[in-house]
Design goal:
18 helices; mainly alpha
Length: 412
Protein backbone atom coordinates (compact mmCIF):
# COMPACT_ATOMS: atom_id res chain seq x y z
CA UNK A 1 0.00 0.00 0.00
CA UNK A 2 2.84 2.38 0.85
CA UNK A 3 4.42 1.85 -2.57
CA UNK A 4 1.11 2.66 -4.27
CA UNK A 5 0.70 5.81 -2.17
CA UNK A 6 4.22 6.98 -3.05
CA UNK A 7 3.57 6.43 -6.75
CA UNK A 8 0.27 8.29 -6.44
CA UNK A 9 1.93 11.26 -4.72
CA UNK A 10 4.53 11.48 -7.49
CA UNK A 11 1.76 11.44 -10.09
CA UNK A 12 -0.17 14.05 -8.08
CA UNK A 13 2.78 16.46 -8.02
CA UNK A 14 3.53 15.82 -11.71
CA UNK A 15 -0.04 16.70 -12.66
CA UNK A 16 0.16 19.79 -10.45
CA UNK A 17 3.27 20.85 -12.38
CA UNK A 18 1.50 20.37 -15.72
CA UNK A 19 -1.54 22.38 -14.63
CA UNK A 20 0.51 25.23 -13.17
CA UNK A 21 2.75 25.44 -16.25
CA UNK A 22 0.17 24.80 -19.00
CA UNK A 23 -3.24 25.61 -17.47
CA UNK A 24 -6.11 25.33 -19.96
CA UNK A 25 -3.93 23.60 -22.54
CA UNK A 26 -4.06 20.38 -20.49
CA UNK A 27 -7.54 20.77 -19.00
CA UNK A 28 -8.99 18.13 -21.34
CA UNK A 29 -6.41 15.47 -20.51
CA UNK A 30 -8.68 14.52 -17.58
CA UNK A 31 -5.56 13.81 -15.53
CA UNK A 32 -7.03 15.63 -12.52
CA UNK A 33 -10.24 13.63 -12.72
CA UNK A 34 -8.20 10.39 -12.88
CA UNK A 35 -6.25 11.50 -9.78
CA UNK A 36 -9.55 12.33 -8.09
CA UNK A 37 -10.97 8.86 -8.66
CA UNK A 38 -7.78 6.97 -7.71
CA UNK A 39 -7.29 9.22 -4.66
CA UNK A 40 -10.79 8.47 -3.35
CA UNK A 41 -10.17 4.73 -3.81
CA UNK A 42 -6.90 5.02 -1.87
CA UNK A 43 -8.67 7.01 0.83
CA UNK A 44 -11.29 4.28 1.20
CA UNK A 45 -8.71 1.49 1.18
CA UNK A 46 -6.55 3.19 3.81
CA UNK A 47 -9.44 4.63 5.83
CA UNK A 48 -8.43 2.84 9.06
CA UNK A 49 -4.96 4.44 9.08
CA UNK A 50 -5.63 7.92 7.72
CA UNK A 51 -5.97 10.67 10.32
CA UNK A 52 -8.77 12.91 9.15
CA UNK A 53 -9.03 16.43 10.51
CA UNK A 54 -12.57 17.10 11.71
CA UNK A 55 -13.37 20.76 12.22
CA UNK A 56 -15.96 23.19 10.90
CA UNK A 57 -14.14 23.52 7.58
CA UNK A 58 -13.92 19.81 6.78
CA UNK A 59 -17.43 19.07 8.05
CA UNK A 60 -18.88 21.81 5.84
CA UNK A 61 -16.83 20.61 2.88
CA UNK A 62 -18.21 17.08 3.31
CA UNK A 63 -21.70 18.61 3.47
CA UNK A 64 -21.14 20.43 0.14
CA UNK A 65 -19.87 17.23 -1.47
CA UNK A 66 -23.00 15.37 -0.29
CA UNK A 67 -25.25 18.15 -1.60
CA UNK A 68 -23.55 17.83 -4.98
CA UNK A 69 -24.49 14.14 -5.13
CA UNK A 70 -28.09 14.90 -4.15
CA UNK A 71 -28.39 17.50 -6.91
CA UNK A 72 -27.12 14.99 -9.48
CA UNK A 73 -30.02 12.73 -8.54
CA UNK A 74 -32.42 15.69 -8.63
CA UNK A 75 -31.54 16.56 -12.23
CA UNK A 76 -30.99 13.01 -13.50
CA UNK A 77 -34.21 12.81 -15.52
CA UNK A 78 -34.03 16.40 -16.83
CA UNK A 79 -30.50 17.00 -18.07
CA UNK A 80 -27.58 15.29 -19.72
CA UNK A 81 -25.67 13.12 -17.24
CA UNK A 82 -22.29 14.48 -18.33
CA UNK A 83 -23.45 18.07 -17.76
CA UNK A 84 -24.83 17.12 -14.34
CA UNK A 85 -21.59 15.50 -13.23
CA UNK A 86 -19.49 18.33 -14.67
CA UNK A 87 -21.49 20.95 -12.76
CA UNK A 88 -21.35 18.91 -9.54
CA UNK A 89 -17.55 18.96 -9.65
CA UNK A 90 -17.62 22.54 -8.41
CA UNK A 91 -17.84 20.80 -5.02
CA UNK A 92 -16.55 17.30 -5.85
CA UNK A 93 -13.02 18.61 -6.46
CA UNK A 94 -13.06 19.25 -2.71
CA UNK A 95 -12.23 15.56 -2.23
CA UNK A 96 -8.59 16.54 -2.81
CA UNK A 97 -8.57 18.08 0.68
CA UNK A 98 -9.33 14.69 2.20
CA UNK A 99 -6.98 12.88 -0.21
CA UNK A 100 -4.10 15.04 1.03
CA UNK A 101 -4.70 13.76 4.57
CA UNK A 102 -3.20 10.50 3.29
CA UNK A 103 0.11 12.32 3.02
CA UNK A 104 0.42 14.14 6.32
CA UNK A 105 3.85 12.59 6.77
CA UNK A 106 4.93 13.66 3.26
CA UNK A 107 4.45 17.40 3.61
CA UNK A 108 8.19 18.07 3.35
CA UNK A 109 8.26 16.37 -0.05
CA UNK A 110 5.15 18.25 -1.17
CA UNK A 111 6.57 21.63 -0.13
CA UNK A 112 9.90 20.91 -1.80
CA UNK A 113 8.13 20.16 -5.08
CA UNK A 114 5.91 23.24 -4.80
CA UNK A 115 8.96 25.44 -4.23
CA UNK A 116 10.55 23.95 -7.34
CA UNK A 117 7.40 24.44 -9.47
CA UNK A 118 6.84 28.05 -8.50
CA UNK A 119 10.52 28.98 -8.65
CA UNK A 120 10.45 28.26 -12.37
CA UNK A 121 6.87 29.35 -13.10
CA UNK A 122 7.74 33.03 -13.88
CA UNK A 123 10.18 31.84 -16.57
CA UNK A 124 7.61 29.40 -17.96
CA UNK A 125 4.95 32.16 -18.00
CA UNK A 126 7.23 34.50 -19.94
CA UNK A 127 8.18 31.73 -22.38
CA UNK A 128 4.48 30.94 -22.81
CA UNK A 129 3.80 34.57 -23.77
CA UNK A 130 6.69 34.67 -26.24
CA UNK A 131 5.75 31.41 -27.96
CA UNK A 132 2.05 32.23 -28.00
CA UNK A 133 2.41 35.67 -29.60
CA UNK A 134 5.60 35.36 -31.64
CA UNK A 135 5.55 31.76 -32.88
CA UNK A 136 2.29 31.20 -34.85
CA UNK A 137 2.98 27.48 -35.06
CA UNK A 138 1.85 26.98 -31.46
CA UNK A 139 -1.63 28.31 -32.24
CA UNK A 140 -2.25 25.07 -34.14
CA UNK A 141 -0.81 22.72 -31.52
CA UNK A 142 -3.93 21.52 -29.73
CA UNK A 143 -3.57 17.85 -28.74
CA UNK A 144 -6.20 17.87 -25.99
CA UNK A 145 -9.81 18.77 -26.72
CA UNK A 146 -8.92 21.21 -29.50
CA UNK A 147 -7.48 23.69 -26.98
CA UNK A 148 -4.13 25.28 -27.97
CA UNK A 149 -1.47 23.79 -25.70
CA UNK A 150 -0.20 27.25 -24.69
CA UNK A 151 -3.61 28.80 -23.98
CA UNK A 152 -3.35 30.21 -20.46
CA UNK A 153 -6.14 32.11 -18.71
CA UNK A 154 -4.70 35.44 -17.63
CA UNK A 155 -6.59 35.63 -14.33
CA UNK A 156 -5.26 32.21 -13.39
CA UNK A 157 -1.76 33.40 -14.25
CA UNK A 158 -2.15 36.30 -11.81
CA UNK A 159 -2.85 33.86 -8.97
CA UNK A 160 0.06 31.58 -9.91
CA UNK A 161 2.41 34.56 -10.22
CA UNK A 162 1.35 35.71 -6.74
CA UNK A 163 2.28 32.28 -5.37
CA UNK A 164 5.71 32.49 -7.05
CA UNK A 165 6.26 35.93 -5.51
CA UNK A 166 5.36 34.80 -2.00
CA UNK A 167 7.46 31.66 -2.23
CA UNK A 168 10.38 33.77 -3.45
CA UNK A 169 10.12 35.78 -0.24
CA UNK A 170 10.01 32.57 1.81
CA UNK A 171 13.07 31.02 0.15
CA UNK A 172 15.05 34.22 -0.43
CA UNK A 173 18.42 33.14 0.97
CA UNK A 174 18.08 29.60 -0.40
CA UNK A 175 18.43 30.93 -3.94
CA UNK A 176 21.64 32.38 -5.35
CA UNK A 177 21.93 36.15 -5.69
CA UNK A 178 21.82 35.94 -9.49
CA UNK A 179 18.68 33.80 -9.43
CA UNK A 180 16.96 36.17 -6.97
CA UNK A 181 17.70 39.14 -9.22
CA UNK A 182 16.58 37.30 -12.34
CA UNK A 183 13.39 36.07 -10.67
CA UNK A 184 12.54 39.59 -9.47
CA UNK A 185 13.00 40.99 -12.98
CA UNK A 186 10.97 38.25 -14.68
CA UNK A 187 8.15 38.47 -12.11
CA UNK A 188 7.96 42.25 -12.65
CA UNK A 189 7.84 41.83 -16.44
CA UNK A 190 5.24 39.06 -16.15
CA UNK A 191 3.09 41.27 -13.94
CA UNK A 192 3.19 44.17 -16.41
CA UNK A 193 2.14 41.82 -19.22
CA UNK A 194 -0.55 40.30 -17.02
CA UNK A 195 -1.83 43.76 -16.05
CA UNK A 196 -2.53 44.41 -19.73
CA UNK A 197 -4.83 41.43 -20.06
CA UNK A 198 -6.56 40.66 -16.76
CA UNK A 199 -8.27 42.88 -14.22
CA UNK A 200 -9.08 39.97 -11.91
CA UNK A 201 -5.43 38.91 -12.06
CA UNK A 202 -4.33 42.41 -11.05
CA UNK A 203 -6.70 42.54 -8.07
CA UNK A 204 -5.92 38.98 -6.90
CA UNK A 205 -2.16 39.59 -7.11
CA UNK A 206 -2.03 43.01 -5.47
CA UNK A 207 -4.68 42.45 -2.77
CA UNK A 208 -3.13 39.19 -1.60
CA UNK A 209 0.42 40.57 -1.71
CA UNK A 210 -0.61 43.60 0.35
CA UNK A 211 -2.33 41.30 2.88
CA UNK A 212 0.81 39.19 3.17
CA UNK A 213 3.00 42.25 3.76
CA UNK A 214 0.53 43.81 6.22
CA UNK A 215 -0.22 40.72 8.31
CA UNK A 216 3.28 39.28 8.38
CA UNK A 217 5.02 39.65 11.77
CA UNK A 218 8.23 37.75 11.04
CA UNK A 219 11.19 40.10 11.16
CA UNK A 220 13.23 38.14 8.63
CA UNK A 221 10.41 38.17 6.10
CA UNK A 222 9.82 41.87 6.75
CA UNK A 223 13.48 42.61 5.96
CA UNK A 224 13.17 40.67 2.69
CA UNK A 225 10.06 42.67 1.75
CA UNK A 226 11.80 45.97 2.54
CA UNK A 227 14.76 44.90 0.40
CA UNK A 228 12.53 44.16 -2.58
CA UNK A 229 10.63 47.44 -2.14
CA UNK A 230 13.96 49.31 -1.94
CA UNK A 231 15.09 47.91 -5.29
CA UNK A 232 11.67 48.00 -6.96
CA UNK A 233 12.40 51.31 -8.81
CA UNK A 234 15.60 49.76 -10.22
CA UNK A 235 13.70 46.63 -11.26
CA UNK A 236 11.05 48.71 -13.03
CA UNK A 237 13.74 50.86 -14.65
CA UNK A 238 15.18 47.71 -16.22
CA UNK A 239 11.97 45.95 -17.31
CA UNK A 240 9.97 48.99 -18.47
CA UNK A 241 12.00 49.54 -21.69
CA UNK A 242 11.53 45.85 -22.51
CA UNK A 243 7.81 46.07 -21.83
CA UNK A 244 7.13 49.18 -23.93
CA UNK A 245 8.95 47.62 -26.88
CA UNK A 246 6.73 44.53 -26.94
CA UNK A 247 4.52 44.80 -30.01
CA UNK A 248 1.78 42.19 -30.25
CA UNK A 249 -1.70 42.12 -31.77
CA UNK A 250 -4.83 42.49 -29.68
CA UNK A 251 -6.27 39.39 -28.07
CA UNK A 252 -9.88 38.21 -28.46
CA UNK A 253 -11.00 40.80 -25.86
CA UNK A 254 -9.41 43.67 -27.77
CA UNK A 255 -6.55 44.11 -25.28
CA UNK A 256 -2.85 44.40 -26.05
CA UNK A 257 0.38 45.04 -24.15
CA UNK A 258 0.96 48.68 -23.20
CA UNK A 259 0.68 51.20 -20.39
CA UNK A 260 -2.46 52.66 -21.96
CA UNK A 261 -4.17 49.29 -21.60
CA UNK A 262 -2.95 48.96 -18.00
CA UNK A 263 -4.36 52.42 -17.25
CA UNK A 264 -7.71 51.43 -18.77
CA UNK A 265 -7.76 48.21 -16.75
CA UNK A 266 -7.05 50.00 -13.47
CA UNK A 267 -9.64 52.65 -14.34
CA UNK A 268 -12.15 49.91 -15.08
CA UNK A 269 -11.53 48.35 -11.67
CA UNK A 270 -12.47 51.59 -9.90
CA UNK A 271 -15.27 52.37 -12.38
CA UNK A 272 -13.72 55.18 -14.40
CA UNK A 273 -12.70 53.63 -17.69
CA UNK A 274 -13.25 55.26 -21.08
CA UNK A 275 -12.43 52.03 -22.91
CA UNK A 276 -15.61 50.73 -24.58
CA UNK A 277 -14.51 47.09 -24.58
CA UNK A 278 -13.74 47.06 -20.87
CA UNK A 279 -16.96 48.92 -20.08
CA UNK A 280 -19.09 46.49 -22.10
CA UNK A 281 -17.43 43.57 -20.34
CA UNK A 282 -18.22 45.03 -16.92
CA UNK A 283 -21.83 45.84 -17.85
CA UNK A 284 -22.39 42.35 -19.27
CA UNK A 285 -21.25 40.75 -16.02
CA UNK A 286 -23.20 43.11 -13.76
CA UNK A 287 -26.41 42.53 -15.72
CA UNK A 288 -26.08 38.76 -15.34
CA UNK A 289 -25.14 38.98 -11.67
CA UNK A 290 -28.12 41.26 -10.96
CA UNK A 291 -30.44 38.83 -12.73
CA UNK A 292 -29.13 35.91 -10.64
CA UNK A 293 -29.60 37.81 -7.39
CA UNK A 294 -33.09 38.86 -8.46
CA UNK A 295 -34.47 35.39 -9.24
CA UNK A 296 -32.55 33.69 -6.43
CA UNK A 297 -34.47 35.67 -3.83
CA UNK A 298 -37.80 34.37 -5.09
CA UNK A 299 -39.44 31.02 -4.43
CA UNK A 300 -38.49 28.22 -5.07
CA UNK A 301 -34.98 29.33 -6.10
CA UNK A 302 -34.32 30.82 -2.66
CA UNK A 303 -34.36 27.37 -1.05
CA UNK A 304 -33.14 24.97 -3.75
CA UNK A 305 -31.84 27.04 -6.68
CA UNK A 306 -32.09 26.07 -10.33
CA UNK A 307 -30.04 22.92 -9.92
CA UNK A 308 -27.27 21.36 -11.99
CA UNK A 309 -27.16 20.37 -15.63
CA UNK A 310 -28.58 23.39 -17.43
CA UNK A 311 -26.62 26.07 -19.27
CA UNK A 312 -27.20 29.13 -17.09
CA UNK A 313 -26.34 31.54 -19.91
CA UNK A 314 -29.18 30.09 -22.00
CA UNK A 315 -31.54 29.58 -19.08
CA UNK A 316 -30.98 33.15 -17.85
CA UNK A 317 -31.36 34.49 -21.41
CA UNK A 318 -27.86 35.94 -21.42
CA UNK A 319 -26.18 36.63 -24.75
CA UNK A 320 -22.45 35.85 -24.71
CA UNK A 321 -19.69 35.69 -27.30
CA UNK A 322 -18.46 32.42 -25.80
CA UNK A 323 -20.77 29.54 -26.69
CA UNK A 324 -19.02 27.29 -24.16
CA UNK A 325 -19.82 29.58 -21.21
CA UNK A 326 -22.35 27.83 -18.99
CA UNK A 327 -21.95 29.73 -15.72
CA UNK A 328 -21.49 33.37 -14.67
CA UNK A 329 -18.02 34.82 -14.14
CA UNK A 330 -18.45 34.46 -10.40
CA UNK A 331 -18.10 31.13 -8.61
CA UNK A 332 -20.02 32.32 -5.55
CA UNK A 333 -23.03 33.53 -7.57
CA UNK A 334 -22.92 30.29 -9.52
CA UNK A 335 -23.52 28.55 -6.19
CA UNK A 336 -26.42 30.91 -5.44
CA UNK A 337 -28.01 30.30 -8.82
CA UNK A 338 -27.70 26.52 -8.82
CA UNK A 339 -28.16 25.72 -5.11
CA UNK A 340 -30.16 28.64 -3.72
CA UNK A 341 -29.56 31.43 -1.23
CA UNK A 342 -29.51 29.18 1.83
CA UNK A 343 -26.57 27.13 0.54
CA UNK A 344 -24.88 30.31 -0.67
CA UNK A 345 -25.05 31.62 2.91
CA UNK A 346 -23.51 28.37 4.22
CA UNK A 347 -20.78 28.68 1.56
CA UNK A 348 -20.12 32.24 2.73
CA UNK A 349 -19.79 30.99 6.31
CA UNK A 350 -17.37 28.31 5.05
CA UNK A 351 -15.20 30.99 3.42
CA UNK A 352 -15.29 33.09 6.59
CA UNK A 353 -13.95 30.11 8.56
CA UNK A 354 -11.03 29.89 6.13
CA UNK A 355 -10.17 33.58 5.83
CA UNK A 356 -11.08 34.85 9.32
CA UNK A 357 -7.75 33.84 10.96
CA UNK A 358 -5.90 35.85 8.30
CA UNK A 359 -7.74 39.08 9.04
CA UNK A 360 -7.58 38.48 12.80
CA UNK A 361 -3.78 38.35 12.47
CA UNK A 362 -3.68 34.79 13.80
CA UNK A 363 -1.54 33.33 11.01
CA UNK A 364 2.21 33.18 10.60
CA UNK A 365 4.66 31.10 8.60
CA UNK A 366 3.22 28.63 6.15
CA UNK A 367 -0.37 29.20 7.24
CA UNK A 368 -0.05 32.94 6.56
CA UNK A 369 1.42 32.13 3.17
CA UNK A 370 -1.41 29.74 2.30
CA UNK A 371 -4.06 32.07 3.74
CA UNK A 372 -2.98 34.80 1.31
CA UNK A 373 -2.82 32.28 -1.54
CA UNK A 374 -6.38 31.11 -0.82
CA UNK A 375 -7.51 34.74 -0.74
CA UNK A 376 -6.05 35.22 -4.25
CA UNK A 377 -7.96 32.16 -5.50
CA UNK A 378 -11.22 33.41 -4.03
CA UNK A 379 -10.78 36.93 -5.45
CA UNK A 380 -10.11 35.60 -8.94
CA UNK A 381 -13.07 33.20 -8.61
CA UNK A 382 -15.29 36.26 -8.02
CA UNK A 383 -14.64 37.43 -11.59
CA UNK A 384 -14.15 34.22 -13.55
CA UNK A 385 -15.28 30.60 -13.97
CA UNK A 386 -12.16 29.68 -12.02
CA UNK A 387 -13.04 27.04 -9.43
CA UNK A 388 -15.55 25.21 -11.65
CA UNK A 389 -12.76 23.61 -13.68
CA UNK A 390 -9.58 21.70 -12.82
CA UNK A 391 -7.20 24.60 -13.71
CA UNK A 392 -8.28 26.52 -10.62
CA UNK A 393 -10.05 23.91 -8.49
CA UNK A 394 -7.20 21.37 -8.35
CA UNK A 395 -4.59 23.78 -6.95
CA UNK A 396 -7.16 25.59 -4.76
CA UNK A 397 -8.32 22.48 -2.91
CA UNK A 398 -4.70 21.27 -2.74
CA UNK A 399 -3.64 24.50 -1.01
CA UNK A 400 -6.64 24.26 1.33
CA UNK A 401 -5.60 20.72 2.25
CA UNK A 402 -2.07 21.94 3.02
CA UNK A 403 -3.56 24.81 5.00
CA UNK A 404 -5.34 22.34 7.24
CA UNK A 405 -2.42 19.94 7.77
CA UNK A 406 0.50 22.41 7.90
CA UNK A 407 1.88 23.36 11.28
CA UNK A 408 2.14 27.03 12.14
CA UNK A 409 5.85 27.42 11.60
CA UNK A 410 8.03 30.01 9.95
CA UNK A 411 10.16 28.95 6.99
CA UNK A 412 13.69 30.26 6.95
Amino acid sequence: MEIVKNLYLKAYLLVMTLYVFLNKGVAYTYLVEALWLIGILLLLMDRKKVELIWNKTTKLLLFFIAIGFIYIIRGFTKYDTIDLIRDSFMFQYGWFVFILFLFKDKTAQIWETLFFIYKWFPFVALLNFILQYFVPFFETVAPFGGIPILLYKNGDMGVQLLISTLLLLFTFEKNSFKLRVLLSLVIALDFLILASYSRSGIVAFLASLVCFIYFNKDMQLQSRVRLLIKYLPVILLIVTPIYINIKVSENFQGRSVGFEQIKNNFSSIVGGTTDATSEDNVVWRLVWWAKIIDYSFSSPNFFIGKGLGMNLATDDDIITLDDSLRSPHNFHLNIMSRFGVLLFMIWTYFLIQIIKPLFKKQLQGRRLLIGCILLAFLINASFDVFLEGPMGAFPFWTWLGLYLISEDEVLV
